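Researcher: Structure prediction, please.
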Amino acid sequence: MVRWHSLGLFAIGATFSASAHAEMSAEDLAKLSQNPVGNVISLPFQNNTNLNFGPEKGTQNVLNIQFPK
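Model: Predicted structure follows.
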């Protein structure tokens, strides 16, 4: 339960911190409008599920996330 509270407080703090830095000059907005896809981040992920895995015939779920370089 404490973990969820900490995560929630972190998310709220990050939101307010990001909004404080969100002000842009007219020149920055003009540059951004010329390349609207420039700030898109690609985060590919692959989910693998293995059935009857191991000696107890359990289920294994593996999520692979490839972070941008």
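Model: Residues 2-20 form the longest helix (19 residues).
Researcher: Thanks, that helps.
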